[in-house]
Design goal:
single chain, mainly alpha, 262 residues
Length: 262
């Protein structure tokens, strides 16, 4: 393509030079009618040259845009692949926590006979409240620089916007449930001061003998409440991460297909 453009420019310039020679000869011979005709032709060629220059400039800009688009595509794919790994880890983590907390809710009714039973029941319990973290640095750059229009495929553009909008919505829901879980945890720790020593710091397992002694006691019910809330939290998060994983995989496939079609 570049060689063709160079050839056209050279040919155009040679024609300009030829017209000028003819124009000067006609002028020296006082042949004004034909001189005007050739002068008009020269102006026409100049206009063609301007249009050609504009077209070349447009082609160069388009080439730069496509190069920039490809770079952003690669970066988005890298972010999405990292997101997918993150979602897979969070799915496994949530499934493990659900299983462990479910066992906890069953075994706490079996009245542990010694501190080792308490340790066995509680050692795997996890009361984390991590918020959703997406790899969205490329998307933030696209938005902040107003570069979303760089994508030539409008379907890709819409899909990218939809994915990160979904991420924002789910991040907000996860954060809201985490705040609720933290409030429940704080309330229980206020009612049962020994809770933090037993479940959060994994100390003083003998305290569990008292906590689990009577299923009708306020302390027992408080612990059950916390465990139930965090089990529900993990169940909700599991659904969210599964939805996000599917969305990320679909967007990766769509971007790869668009790249193949170019």
């Amino acid at each position: 393509m570049f060689q063709v453009i160079v050839y056209i420019i050279k040919s155009w310039w040679q024609m300009i030079r030829l017209f000028r020679k003819i124009r000067h000869k006609l002028l020296s011979e006082n042949n004004y009618k034909i001189y005007v005709l050739y002068a008009t032709g020269e102006v026409f060629l100049v206009m063609i040259g301007i249009l050609l220059a504009l077209q070349i400039d447009n082609l160069n800009e388009a080439r730069k845009d496509r190069s920039t688009e490809d770079q952003y595509m690669e970066r988005l794919l890298h972010d999405l692949q990292n997101d997918t790994i993150y979602f897979e880890n969070q799915i496994s983590f949530s499934e493990r926590n659900i299983s462990q907390l479910d066992s906890f809710l069953v075994e706490m009714y079996e009245a542990p006979e010694n501190p080792n039973d308490v340790k066995r029941i509680t050692k795997h319990s996890t009361f984390n409240t991590d918020d959703l973290t997406l790899k969205n640095s490329t998307f933030r750059e696209l938005i902040s620089t107003g570069s979303m229009n760089i994508f030539s495929d409008q379907k890709i553009k819409v899909a990218i916007m939809d994915y990160y909008q979904l991420g924002e919505e789910i991040a907000s829901q996860i954060k809201e449930f985490n705040l609720f879980s933290t409030r429940v945890m704080t309330d229980v720790m206020a009612k049962v001061p020994s809770f933090s020593h037993l479940f959060l710091m994994k100390l003083q397992y003998e305290l569990g003998m008292e906590l689990f002694k009577d299923p009708r006691s306020d302390k027992f019910l408080a612990v059950e409440q916390v465990v139930s809330v965090y089990k529900l939290r993990n169940m909700e998060h599991l659904e969210h991460f599964q939805e996000l994983k599917i969305a990320a995989e679909q967007l990766i496939l769509q971007i790869n297909n668009a790249s193949l079609d170019k």
